[in-house]
Specification:
single chain; about 250 residues; Alpha-Beta Plaits; 2 domains; 6 helices; rod-shaped
Length: about 250
């Protein structure tokens, strides 16, 4: 008895064999990676380790003090224009040692034109600036000298430090060193020691920047000669803090 097979039969058989071979190759390709992952996980779990939390902090005095200054023609009963006040302010800032080309920024210019249309009042201009000073003494001097010009709408927006990134890195390094020291102290107490680091996780904590309301002014008094001594503004320090969670090999 002779059995005849069609061409479609042989094609189907070859296709099935090809699919089986591809599946086998995929399995052979994935097995080493699976074993490697399992082995790596097993090695980490099976090791004896000590878990510690290292902390470090630093307090720094701000050297970037951002002052908001507003000039309004209403303050002078419209007798002095904004441009005149601005010119006087810039001259005075230069006189007391401020680099106005670098540290003075115009933020906004507004007018009361809309209210003028409604109330038929005079059009008054308002100009806002941002001034950066680098210590409390200069901040107090700016307050005093601008007030003499009739510019008293001054406030502290925020404080910062020019080397903030550098200090953050230093605190992070101190935190991980503290973790290692803690691990060594704890393991030595039981007659063992801490080896290489198996796991490190940085816990980023937001830097504490003092509230601009917490500013103390001192030295704002009459010197006895009729002159008012420039006040010095004291700012709270900026606090930088970091924590690092570490697993060290327990030997």
């Amino acid at each position: 008895m002779v059995i005849a097979y069609s061409n479609s039969y042989y094609k189907t058989k070859r296709l099935t064999k090809s699919i089986a071979m591809k599946r086998l190759l995929i399995i052979l390709f994935l097995v080493p990676f699976t074993l490697f992952a399992q082995q790596g996980e097993k090695n980490f779990i099976d090791q004896n380790y000590i878990e510690v939390l290292g902390k470090a902090e630093m307090e720094i005095s701000p050297d970037l003090i951002y002052l908001a200054i507003s000039i309004n023609e209403k303050d002078t009963r419209n007798k002095v224009s904004v441009s005149q006040l601005e010119e006087k302010m810039i001259d005075k800032l230069r006189e007391i040692g401020v680099d106005v080309s670098k540290d003075l920024l115009i933020k906004d210019l507004t007018s009361s034109f809309r209210s003028h249309l409604l109330l038929k009042s005079d059009i008054l201009l308002t100009k806002e600036y941002q001034l950066v000073v680098h210590n409390g003494k200069m901040a107090g001097l700016v307050y005093l000298e601008l007030e003499k010009l009739g510019i008293s709408n001054i406030s502290v927006e925020r404080v910062d430090h020019s080397n903030m990134d550098k200090f953050r890195r230093e605190v992070k390094v101190s935190a991980i060193k503290a973790a290692k020291e803690k691990a060594l102290e704890l393991t030595q107490a039981i007659g063992q020691t801490a080896g290489r680091a198996l796991f490190i996780r940085e816990i980023d904590m937001p830097s504490y920047r003092p509230s601009t309301a917490n500013v103390m002014i001192r030295g704002y008094s009459n010197s006895g000669s009729g002159k008012i001594a420039a006040p010095e503004m004291d700012f709270e320090k900026i606090k930088i803090e970091y924590s690092v969670q570490c697993y060290f090999e327990l030997k």
